[in-house]
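Researcher: Sequence of Cobalt transporter subunit CbtB follows. Predict its structure.
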Amino acid sequence: MSVNTITASTSSAAGRIAPALLSVFFGLFIVGFVGFSPMDVVHNAAHDARHANAFPCH
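Model: Prediction complete. Tokens:
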């Protein structure tokens, strides 16, 4: 009878930093572009979402 073992591969630093940076840039896009958009509907939706998540916006 053989026993198969599965080893977990460790992530490199670059493999962990890339998703984190992508998340930061996506968040900045959402808050910066959509939150300060001249379109009233988009701005109000982002504004309400920021207040719902206790994010200070003014």
